[in-house]
Amino acid sequence: MLEYMLGSGFLKSRTFFYMDCIAIYMVLLPILVGIAVFFVMKGRYKLHQFSQSSLFFITSVLLGLFFYEIYVRKGFDNIVVASAFSSEILAPFLNFYIVLVLITLVMWFSTLTFAKSDRKRRALPGVYSPSHKKSGRRVGVAIFLTSLTGSTFYWMLFIA
Fold this sequence. Notes:
Layout: H1 2-5, H2 17-41, H3 45-73, H4 76-82, H5 87-120, H6 129-159
């Protein structure tokens, strides 16, 4: 199984199979979050809560693996050598991506945390629904930007 995960990628990339899987997940993440929001529209609050928590956990783990691959396993300098872009372009883009990922994860985590405490007080759904909806929209935009930026960065590193 490990040999398969460390085999060459299927997206015509210069990286491992599991990195391609992470890239596909990040592209699909806004759609998956949209499906989780759809659960609320249908009144399936527990399913919404479970799916958002699960997506947050999976995203955190996969982004950790992505950054582990770039920083620890291969090293950023080794990856840049094979890329069509120079390190002068990729390094600031990577820094921007890291900041965006961290902001998104913090926003998402705080939204989940406040929702959990509001739900325990029986204020969600209810009194705090409008503020939770506004917070969710901000997180949704951040997730979309993270997905778009991550896909672009992946393309710059491993495909172009």
